[in-house]
Predict the structure.
Amino acid sequence: MWLEYASVEELEAMIAAGRIVAPYLHVGAGSNLLFVGDYAGTVLHSRISGIEIIAEEDDSVEVRVGAGVVWDDFVAYCVDHSWYGAENLSLIPGEVGASAVQNIGAYGVEVKDLITAVETIDVKGRKRVYAVGECGYAYRKSLFKSPAMKSVFVTYVRYRLSKKEHYRLDYGALRREWEKCPNPNLKALRQLIIGIRRQKLPDPAVLGNAGSFFVNPVVQRSKFEQLLKEYPTIPHYEVDGELVKIPAGWLIEQCGWKGKAMGRAAVYEKQALVLVNLGGASGLDIVALSDAVRTSVRQQFGIEIVPEVNFIG
Ligand code: EPU
């Protein structure tokens, strides 16, 4: 069954009427889900809308945004109001509620850098506001992803944006592209990010995909140094003194998978971290490809890559 609510009050009424019985699954736009079978239970979705200012200082603004607002509509709203901070996260599919669950990130920014608090209600109707420090945020991780929190639904997310002009340009070739801009400003940076995403990532409305299919693996420094001897140009990001993050897309490409298909499921030709449905692949076909890719990376590099996508059913 599919249950949608447009306000906290509507959700509370559903809870009071005993309409939410296990098993249930709360979803956003579904852009990071892979259905491998039918879901035998209730699927819940928030349509809570609205963007309101709840605090304003000389140099920043704090806004409260409904979980059902489309993420990129919110980014566009920030850019239109000259609020800085969200622009590098332009065009990420999905909704505001999921942004706080997934800790979405791109081009040097993670949404945890903007979040101040997450408002929730649980399946028994108990409300709780989590300050950002209580949300357990790390790379593609949050408290809300843990199995124990499946009964907790995000209703609103509060973000702080800056009113002072500043840009995050440390990612890859971003600064060089930026320096070529005739009129470098907030709107231009959003357009630059949109351009980069469109070049590398397929539009899910055209070619079925869930963005990055795997999380980039984090390995011990000793392991990284061993790889460096064999692959002197291996791309990597320093995590801390002990750990190094390696792009899974690079590992997959080295294994020869880029652009390769298994039936109607394929590794995207322009970005090997993305698995695509060429049309007609089932959820299980995608899982089979994912397993084959994981096995190759394990055999060639001794590294385990883990899906970022959630398998349902
Ligand atoms: N690379 C390859 N071959 C490939 C893909 C990548 O060699 O086929 C290399 C690139 O040359 C580069 C490095 O891997 O040196 C990193 O590639 P890229 O900048 O494209 O980023 P990513 O690590 O593959 C991550 C996020 C993306 C995000 C980009 C930009 C994860 C799991 N993915 O990808 O997020 O847009 O960085 O910040 O961290 C998503 O989560 O759905 C997503 C698209």
In short: Residues 50 and 66 are 5 Å apart (CA to CA). The chain has a mean pLDDT of 97. The helical segments are 8-16, 71-80, 96-102, 174-179, 186-200, 221-230, 248-254, 283-301.
